[in-house]
Amino acid sequence: MRRSSSATWVLLLVIALLAACNRQKEAPGTPGGGSPEDATRESLALLRDGKFDLFWKHALPPADFATLRADWPRRNAAQAPINPDDEAKFEAGVKRLTEPDAEKKLFAELRPTLVRFDRDYKDQMPLVSGVGQSMALTAIDQDKDLTLSQKRQLREAVNVMAPWTQTVGWGDQFKAKEAIGIVIDTARKANLSTPEALHAMTFEQSMATWSVAWLGFKRLLDVYGLSIDKSFESVSIDTIESNGGSAHVKIAYTLLDKPIQTDATLVLLDGRWYDSDLLQRVRDEHARLAPPAPATSTPPPSSTAAPPRIQASRAPMPDARGR
User: Fold this and answer.
1) What are 278-296's pLDDT values in tens digits?
2) C-alpha angle with apex 53: 47 to 58, nearest 5 degrees?
3) For a 10 Å CB count at each end of the chain, is N or C smaller?
4) Residue 55 sits in which domain range?
């Protein structure tokens, strides 16, 4: 298992903020949406609330959702072997977070570090923040799976968050004690045990664990003054262009009161709208995980053929990924 760097956590946060959505409407767990705005709003509301199982059911056509669930064991099997040292560290960490009096023990261990931080390192936060900002921006630029629009949005988010990290009271003992309580509560609710147990989870079990982690992460950030739900409430969604079976929508929101926007291209399938990039990634992953078809002298039935690649539009229109 790889250790998570501070830059990775920044990326996780800003990617999660793609899910920002207002609370005007509770999203049902139904696939697609009747309009591009409704489809986007419902997807984001489900992500906001950590309802990841319903999100996938909503965000994918029924056949692709069924494929995703069927592929889940293969995704887990494709994980790299776990280093014995990392496995031991993982299990030891879980034990520390879930044992009796974990809050008191961890705070007692952390308190000298907090005191030392306020005494020796507090004034160095601008330098530390600058290094973290540079690492995050480099990671974004080098990520081959992100679209140009996503990279632009993530860079904006990192540049907004960097000054915030310099103002947070990281050495505040009261905040640290509250944060430790949230981390421990989240770990206990997630029912963590071993890396193998995580890899052996069913789709439903994985989604439940993700939900617990995401909701705990939001609570943790609230302690230090970054409200993800405030960003959710600021979102506006507008269709910039619609052309037959495709639509280009703009998603605008604020992060720490600074405006950020992104966009997405949706396709219309069987009367429902779906994010074309997300749908294509799921289909590409299925093609990668699917076992090779046995050699045959006759063409396979059309029902077993791989689904066609998603076409963003039936007529020329701007490519959202290039924005």
Assistant:
1) 999 999 999 988 876 666 6
2) 70
3) N
4) 6-322
